[in-house]
Amino acid sequence: MTLNKRSRRAIFDAIPQFVLVIASVVIALVVVGFVFGLLIPLSSSPLVTQVGVGKITQQNGEYCVTFTLKSTTRIQIISATLQGVTVNSAKISNGGILSEGITQVTIKFPNSVNLVKGNEYLLNIVFLNGYSIKVIVEYQEQ
């Protein structure tokens, strides 16, 4: 089967349109991939997780909250909130700095926080980059 001049021209005119359609589909897939985080994550937040359950004890008229965190990078805690009472990094051990790996953290809260021994509480931890996590702590007898 031989193609006449008109048929060949029609095929050559359709090739650029076909390439444009393919390119549009590829671009659309890349955009969807970025939006849904399939290709690369859009957030560079470090991963910080709690190791075990923390504990609350009472010492020298203050609540001493101790827990362990595992971090993928060095990061600073700027505040912690327990039962509506917030303290800044001045009340956090090591100035709130977490090293990469496992770090034990101790935070001092005033005894104005109303706690019941034996109960578990959620402690909200906020980091310098705006990232936050919840930590489970239990008020224990000494």
Task: Please characterize this protein's 3D structure.
This protein has one helix spanning about 5-35; strands spanning about 50-60, 60-70, 75-80, 85-90, 95-100, 100-110, 120-125, 130-140. Strands 1, 2, 3, 4, 5, 6, 7 and 8 form an eight-stranded mixed β-sheet that branches. The chain folds into two domains: about 1-40; about 50-140, Immunoglobulin-like (Sandwich). The protein is α+β, with helices and mostly antiparallel strands and about 140 residues long. The longest helix is centred in the first third of the chain and has 31 residues, at about 5-35. It is rod-shaped. It contains one helix and eight strands.
Output the keywords.
142 residues, alpha+beta, 22% helix
Indicate the topology.
Elements: H1 5-35, E1 48-59, E2 62-71, E3 75-82, E4 85-88, E5 97-98, E6 101-110, E7 120-127, E8 132-139
Parallel strand pairs: 1-8
Antiparallel strand pairs: 1-2, 2-6, 3-4, 3-5, 3-7, 7-8
Would you kindly provide a brief summary of this structure?
The chain has 142 residues and is an alpha+beta fold. The chain has one helix at residues 5-35; strands at 48-59, 62-71, 75-82, 85-88, 97-98, 101-110, 120-127, 132-139. The protein folds into 2 domains: 1-42; 48-139, PCu(A)C copper chaperone (Immunoglobulin-like, Sandwich).
